[in-house]
What we know:
CATH superfamily of the largest domain: Alpha/Beta hydrolase fold, catalytic domain
Shape: globular
Largest sheet: 8 strands, mixed
CATH topology of the largest domain: Rossmann fold
CATH architecture of the largest domain: 3-Layer(aba) Sandwich
Helix content: 40-55%
Strand order of the largest sheet: 3-4-6-5-7-8-9-10
Strand content: 5-15%
Radius of gyration: 22 Å
Structural class: alpha/beta
Number of helices: 16
Amino acid sequence: MTISTDAATRLCETVRMLRHLAIHLPDPICLSFLAQANEPPPDQASPSVRATERAVSATFARIGVKAVQYVHDGEAQLSSFVMFISKKICQALDFSYDHFDEFESVREFGRLVRHFDFSGSVPEVETVHLITRDNVALSVHASTDQNRPAIVLALPCGMPFDLCRDWFNALSERFFVVTWETRGLFGSCTSFDQLSVDTDAQVGDLINVMNHYELPNAHLMGICGGAVIALSAAATHPERVSSLSLWHGDYNLGDNSLRTAHQQNFEWLMESAAVDRNEASDLQALFLDQATLATIPDSIAHAALYPYVNEELFYRYARLNDALNKTELQSRLGQISVPTLVVAGDADETTHIGGSQRIAESISDALLHVESNGSHLAFFESTHHSKQTAFRFLESTLESVAV
């Protein structure tokens, strides 16, 4: 048979999507070829399966994974991370392992893998590596039309850009959009213990990004933990902020009745893991259990699992988030005077709607918008309704400035 071009391309696209997880797992990565429900498992000794193993290994090699091993009949022993990767690879192949049987198929696939761009870059997004004033390397992403009104997007702390790429693309249709990935968690960082990790340092990164693109002011859009960074920037650098929108923010206002069980558990987890690397190592081991996958929506797991994938990343993630959780917000809210949209969802079990209500009440020119059936997952799936809410607010603030 000839190679299924669709399956081969899907394999490459899936490995590209999984790159953040795969390159941070310890070698070797142990994968398993799975069967669909009620189907017999693949014959691991068959030439077809062996050819598929070689194809998958060659694909992972292109993102820098040095060694892949294949587990036969041992799926229960896989960590949550490699089980997730295995599932995604098998789905890309339609749970069929005979795509690479013939010599011509192998040659054709080899050409595809050699020329495929696994970086995740696209022509419409510029990616630069910015060195901040305190000598931190930031991975910064920007759309292409700098003549449009500017939006600075504060991502959820520790999450890869890919998590919010759909929102970035939607906003870029009308605005010049810039964002960055959290300090110390992306790219090269050999001296994390010397980095400042508090909220003011993360606000400084936002300002550094604005300075790099020579933006005198911009709309700030903060998501989840990024909402704390955005509102803190609006409080401490009011001259740089034209308007503010805060989406499903994770706010610690000193009142547990305004925090979901998820927020309270997350706060404990981050505070505990931030104590030292030994504590972080013990807690990170909990996430190796495959049961973890039941609590993370499949559509965002490739990004949401990233800061948990190894002990060091988890420790850094905890340090940064613990700082955000401990940020005293109430005094900052009274310093914000720009038009502000605060968005919450009435079905959000991740962050409490009451926190957003309190934030909106405490900012002088704030509008609270509660999305029907809104939640974290709905936001990341970039629903049409949410995008229209964002555009209405942004365009209304632009019109008020023009009048």
